[in-house]
Amino acid sequence: MNHVTPATCVALTVVLLAVTGCGGGGRQTLTVFADTSLTATFGSLGKTFEAAHPGVAVRLDFGGSGALARRIVQGAPADLFAAAGAATMRASGAPSPRVFARDRLQIAVPKGNPAHVANLKDLAAPGVRVALCAEPAPCGAGARAALSAAGVTVTPAGPDQNGPDQNAAGALAKVRIGKADAALVYRTDVRAAAGAVEGVDFPEAAKAVEDYLVATVPGTTRIALTREFVDLVLSDEGRRVLAAAGFTPVTG
């Protein structure tokens, strides 16, 4: 009878662990923090990435860019960060970001545009109720820049008429349920409403263009995977998905 010594057991265990680790049986997880407005596009691109990388699971964590940047600074585990706004990306500490898309404001109106809103000046007309985002939200800062460029002052029809809505979803909700005649939100917000509202373009939107940037989060050990995901975002497929959502893709 052959006897197995404790030392032999240890050696066998080490060999088995080594074989298991090198055999590729485990899956890697690529954690991507992304702005909420990228939910549909990055959801689609995440599935495409997984299909091309059978051993990789893409974990998408969506939220406001500012909140995500703070989580990164506080040490939250993330490999890649896709943010709305260069200032937010800088706040995260992620180096060498790349701009991959842009978004611009539109005036969202109910179907049929009953208040006949055609430009920013129409928002200041008597009786026109306007929903605006709060300043911390990208659509809030963008609205302020566009209205300033047009020399237009608008009193928002916020909760109880005392202030602006917190985000694009709140502003659009007012338009959909008839509590506002118009809202200043981004083109992708209008597209995401799936026909519940219509979008009106205006020239001052050029003064409120929002850049979307992506960067590898410092400290990640999955640098090769993050680079491949960025390559997908910048690829023809990435551009197609972004354009379909209303973004203007950028490959520079």
Q: How is this structure best described in words?
A:
The protein is of the alpha/beta class and 252 residues long. Helices cover 38% and strands 21% of the residues. It contains nine helices and ten strands. The chain has helices at 6-22, 39-52, 65-73, 86-92, 138-150, 168-176, 187-192, 223-234, 236-244, and strands at residues 28-35, 56-63, 80-84, 98-103, 105-110, 130-131, 182-186, 197-200, 210-216, 248-249. Strands 2-1-3-9-4-10 form a six-stranded mixed sheet. Strand 1, helix 2 and strand 2 form a beta-alpha-beta unit. Helix 3 (65-73) packs parallel to helix 4.
Describe this structure in a few short sentences.
By secondary structure, the protein is of the alpha/beta class. It is 38% helix and 21% strand.
**Biggest sheet character:** 6 strands, mixed
- Could you tell me the mean pLDDT? 86
Number of strands: 10
**SSE series:** HEHEHEHEEEHHEHEEHHE
How many separate helices?
9
**Approximate helicity band:** 25-40%
Which word captures the global form?
A: elongated
C-alpha termini separation: 70 Å
- Biggest sheet strand line-up: 2-1-3-9-4-10
* Helix/strand class: alpha/beta
- What share of residues are in beta strands? 15-25%
Cα radius of gyration in angstroms: 24 Å
Q: Give unreliable regions as ranges.
A: 6-24
